[in-house]
Every structure is written in C-alpha cells, then in structure tokens.
Amino acid sequence: MILGFLYSLQHIAFLLIHDKRYKHFFIFFSLIVFILIYILKPDTYDIPRYVAAVNFPYYEPLFSLLIIILRPFLSNRNVILVIQFLIGVLTFFVINIYTKDYKNRVDKRVSYILAFFSVAFTLGVNNALRQYMASLIVFISIWFFLNNKFILSLLIFCFAPMIHLSSSMFYFLIIVILLFSKRAYFARRKLTLSFSLINSLFFFISLILIILLPVIVSYTPYASYLDRNIVEGRVDFTLKYLPILLSFVISEYFFGKIKKEDYIFSQLRIIRTFFIVFMFFFIFFNSLNELASRVLSFYFTLEMIVLSLAYVKGYKTGAIIINLSYAFAINAINVIGRIWSLIVFH
Fold it and tell me: Which member of 63, 107, 171, 208 has the greatest number of CB atoms within 10 A?
C-alpha cells in the first residue's frame, strides 16, 4: 500500500517543477522515493520465475548466456538483481543518447527521473525483463537509423531477438513506418500535411487489421497467444488502454504540429500514433488480450523516450500530461504495490 502511494505521489509531485525553483527538490525527492521503493518492494509476478529459472535457463540464447555467465559467482536472486541493474544502466544510456544534444543539465536530470519512474521502467525492471531489455536495444538501433547509420542500426538490432524474439517484429514494423513517413512527409519541400497523412495511413491499416488480426496472428510465432488470457493479477486490456488513449490525445494536443525540422522527436511521435491506433483494435478481440499486453509494453518503452525527450525540448505541458497519467497506471501500481491496487481498484 505504501509503495503504491509513493509511486503515485512522485508523479503528482512532478507538477511542482512547472516552477523552476522546485526542480532540485523534485530530483532529491524522487531519488529518496526510488530508493525506498526498491529497498522495500517484494518480488512479484515474473521475478520469482526468473530466479527459479537461473538453474535451467530456457530463454532466448543471449539472455540465457548472460545468466550462465553470472550464476557461478552469484546466488540465483543476485543473478537476476545484476540483470535488473544492467537494465537500469541500459535505460540511462537510451535516454542519454536521445537527449545528448540538450545542454541544460538540470532538465536532463529531470528527464532521467521521468524515465526511471515511467511505466516502461517500472514494468520492465520488475516483471518483463527480457522484453524490456530487447525493446531498449531496438530503440538504440532506431536512434542510429534516424541518424542515417543504417548498417550500425541493423547490427545493434541483431542482439535484440536473442534476448526476446518479439523485438524483430517491432523493429521491422518501425522501419517501415519511418521510411514511409520520411518519403511521404519529411522529404517534401512544402509541408501541407500534419496528422492527415498519418490518419489516412493508419485508418487504412486499421480497417484491415480489425478483420484479419486473429488470422494474421495465427500464422505467426505468437499463435500460442490466441485465447491465452492470464487472469491472475492481470487487468483487462481495455481498462489499461482507454486512459492511455486519453493521455495520448491530450499530450499530442499540447505537442502541436509535427515539425519537419524536429525530425527525431517527430518521427517518434508518428510511431507512437501508429501504436495507439494499432492497439485500439485489440479491444475488439478478447482472445488477444495477452498479445495486446505485449504490444502495450513495447509502446510504454517508446512513450518513455517521448516523455524524456519532450521535457528537455520544452514541451513541458505535454510531458506533465504523460507523467501525471502514470500516477493512475493500474498495471504499474499493481507491480509496485499490489495491496494498494487491490484496495483502490477492487
């Protein structure tokens, strides 16, 4: 109960730094809350399974290799603890490369705080270790792709499927979106389009998906997710999605028009829009509830980067909207303080 309250309080406290005088207080307060949460928090959900699997790792090869390298020197729980620490370092690195061109050190520190209290990090470091780690690698490779280092991007991406296989699907989907938007929107001399381009593309894809989605999934490695709904401790996907949709709409309103000169941030916003529209059609298929949660986890990693980048770029109101919505994120609060979520939501 206390941990869930602290998690929510930290996000609400972010409202204070609309006044510049409170930024240092916010950073200090957040560090204290972060330490308290991760000292007091018990292991829940997938963490005990990871600990038990250290003796016989059956995961993708690179993740299993990491376990095998560490386990001769550490207890099972400490092996997973080291991996959680590495995930934290990787999170810091991702936010750093996306915000490295911004010189305001205080704002950058705040952006790191926003990342480490995001739903993506909370779920990733406390539950979905493999998918979150692979997602971070995907976005490192995407950063290089956006900076026209295509070969390096592909080489870095090759590590991701060896940690979690689903990353390959997300990577190539994002590449297609980036290439399309670059050719159809950013390459134009005169910008006459904003969300109209995105809406037309996504509306067309969505009409197909709403009819064919279960069929498409049945021919992929994720066919096992059909009719696989893990009930215990899970929140229905629709209940998770609708607040996220609202946060997306409001934050995008404050971000304003997609700008050609703001290339990386704009491309990330286009990808974010695609996934919001894509996930909308999962609510029509109860059989895909578990698969939808996997897509949502990847979306949260993307949104974490958008949030941190938005803050350092001066889109403060949009960043506040996203961060404040995390104070009411059922799935994250469930992981941080399970008792608190049961009291509030049941």
Answer: 171
User: 152 with 137: CB under 8 angstroms?
Assistant: no
Q: How far is CA 257 from CA 183, 194, 250, 318, in A?
A: 18, 6, 13, 13
Q: How many domains does the chain have?
A: 1
Tens-place pLDDT, residues 1-42? 566 666 776 777 777 776 677 788 888 888 888 888 888 888
More confident residue, 283 or 345: 283
The mean pLDDT value for 83-94 works out to 96
Integer angstrom CA distances of residue 213 from 47, 288, 289, 294: 31, 9, 12, 15
Lowest mean pLDDT among 266-270, 316-320, 335-339: 335-339
| Spatial distance between the Cα atoms of 138 and 132, rounded to a whole number of angstroms | 10
Measured CA to CA, the distance from residue 170 to residue 178 in angstroms comes to: 12
**Contact partners, residue 345, CB within 8 Å, separation at least 6:** 235, 330
Please tell me the distance from the alpha carbon of residue 139 to that of residue 197, in angstroms, as a whole number: 24
Taking alpha carbons only, the member of 306, 312, 309 closest to residue 272 is 306
Regarding pTM above 0.90, the answer is no
Sequential DSSP letters for 237-250: HHHHHHHHHHHHHH
Question: Given this model, what pLDDT does residue 293 score?
Answer: 82
Q: How many CB atoms lie within 10 A of CB 70?
A: 18
Give CA angle at 42 (40, 44), nearest 5°. Answer: 150
* Spatial separation of the C-alpha atoms in residues 126 and 46, rounded to whole Å: 8
Report which of 130, 125, 126, 116 is spatially closest to residue 66, judged by C-alpha positions.
130
Domain span at 291? 2-345
CA end-to-end distance (rounded Å), the chain: 14
User: Within 10 A of 261 (CB to CB), how many other CB atoms are there?
Assistant: 7
